[in-house]
Write a structure and sequence with these properties.
The chain is mainly β and 117 residues long. It has a single domain (17-114), classed as Beta Barrel (OB fold (Dihydrolipoamide Acetyltransferase, E2P)). The chain has strands at residues 17-22, 28-29, 43-48, 52-60, 71-78, 82-89, 99-105, 109-114. A five-stranded mixed barrel has the order 4-5-6-8-7. The chain is globular and about 50 Å long.
Length: 117
């Protein structure tokens, strides 16, 4: 996984992304507030479980000289509620309302993989 200054993933056998929930308001924040933050006492870590729904996306078409294929980036809404931006994989073209699950990625820290029925 990536070398982040804060943990993205839980240490569970089946890891989940970690967010922070504000103790007073219940608002979820991703990525989680670092333990050494002045705001840490106001937040508690929570696991983002299950699949989320695509809220919005775009397909990036890199320059032909780069040799990179097109890829999708988008916002995925999870229960919490929390909305997370990231790379969408598993479908050539996502659709708003599609279900995606977060999974670890060595290059980006996390990506969203399409849930197949």
């Amino acid at each position: 996984m990536s070398d982040q200054a804060y943990p993205l993933w839980s240490a569970d056998p089946l890891p989940h992304l970690i967010a922070s929930r504000h103790r007073a308001s219940g608002e979820w924040i991703f990525p989680a507030v670092p333990a050494d933050s002045p705001l840490a006492a106001e937040h508690e870590p929570v696991a983002i479980r299950g699949s989320g729904v695509v809220y919005s996306f775009t397909v990036i078409h890199p320059a032909p000289k780069s040799g990179q294929p097109p890829y999708a980036l988008g916002y995925v809404d999870f229960v919490g509620p929390v909305r997370i931006f990231g790379r969408l994989q598993g479908k050539a073209r996502p659709v708003i309302g599609d279900r995606y699950e977060a999974r670890p990625d060595a290059e980006f820290g996390y990506v969203f993989e399409a849930v197949t029925a």
